[in-house]
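Notes from the 1:1 (GR / supervisor)

We went over the backlog. Supervisor wanted to see one worked example end to end before approving the batch request, so GR pasted a single chain during the call. The sequence is below; no edits were made to it. Supervisor asked that the structure be written out right there so they could see what the output format looks like.
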Amino acid sequence: MVTGGGMRGGAMEYDARRQATLPRTHGDLDDDGKERRTGTVWTATAHIITAVIGSGVLSLAWAMAQLGWVTGPVTLLLFAAITYYTCGLLADCYRVGDPVSGKRNYTYTEAVKSNLGGWYVWFCGFCQYVNMFGTGIGYTITASISAAAINKSNCFHWHGHDADCSQNTSVYIIGFGVLQVIFCQLPNFHKLWWLSILASVMSFAYAAIAVGLSLGQTISGPTGKTEITGTEVGVEVDAPQKVWMTFQALGNVAFAYSYAIILIEIQDTLRSPPAETETMRRATLMGIAVTTGFYMMCGCLGYSAFGAAAPGNILTGFGFYEPYWLVDLANACIVVHLVGGFQVFCQPLFAAVEGAVAARYPGSTREYGAAGVNVFRLVWRTAFVALITLAAILLPFFNSILGILGSVAFWPLTVFFPVEMYIRQRQVPRLSVKGAALQGLSFVCFLVTVAACAASIQGVLDSLKTYVPFKTRS
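Structure output shown during the call:
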């Protein structure tokens, strides 16, 4: 699941002993002294699909509405191709030197440290932990909107579609935060394995329901008006809005493909021979092909069903009112998924901070009472969740936040570091044709990231003009 540490050399980085690892069976030892890995191309493909398909699928109909029938599918295919190619470069960095017998890197940051070192390690840690913090905010917003949508759905069913069923989302955000405070006190990541599996099942469930409902709406009608170029300038939007929303849609698509951050951890479950990089490349191809096909169905069917009026979140924007129980089930699945997803992303950050504090202040690890209460862990994790909860209350804007998260994670973690590591590892001359092409790809993706991030921030600023925390109902 996507559905995810110590201070070294001035940078926060993952600690392999604390990092979440995917299951391995007991057996003989591998070349690094660890239990023999048993993963195959099929298990890796399953992990990739599970990691990629998540809450990002909910915004694809809206993104398609901004981009249209030509640019929308082409954008999905381009992001898929770029992700496949750069993840292949990243897979080559799992081992240092020899792809069969070289030293293993167990985490993304270890790969950056082994291949690049220096300021790259600090920048990588910064990007990862900013992404984790931002994802925590995004998951809190999305789960709370879905929880509110369950009550709204029931209200519309019993009182009619014209009834005032608006909800105060801030209440649900606070409730989600309280729940996460409880889960965050679990001291060891491995105790969450059941929650991660449950979250994975939930993500498939609500994504499948969204596709099914969109297909049903497309077949039965009525359907919305669609255009080759998406929303029409002068009709649905003005020219500046069209530009901003187009770039924001790119950020939403980028968010839907973000999984490079855990690729090394997935690769670390694979058996060899054949070389892990060969297996991982095949798994990446199959995984991205399956998810892209699924995304095409969700985005295109959603756009076909609702046209330019496609909601920002296809399951909470009330394009669907009936069957209300199925809409409720889908939103309940979202809440359960994101309860687990929040922990998967935040636990490595907890481990990083607590490991750094323990190294400097060994007394911070002391536990009290029969329950083994650690005061520092209790205070720090509660404060962290409280900060995320406050940020979610102040900025509860689904598409804009997803756009920011997607753009921030896409260029540095999916493109920049894999390209730089590959150039350094293979000693590709930067002025050669291949070197220039790789750097050109990185630069173009950087420009897309900047544009998508700027458009999403603009979306937040526009929303803040009419939003009042604790008072605005939606």
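Supervisor's comment: The chain has 13 helices and six strands.
Batch request approved.
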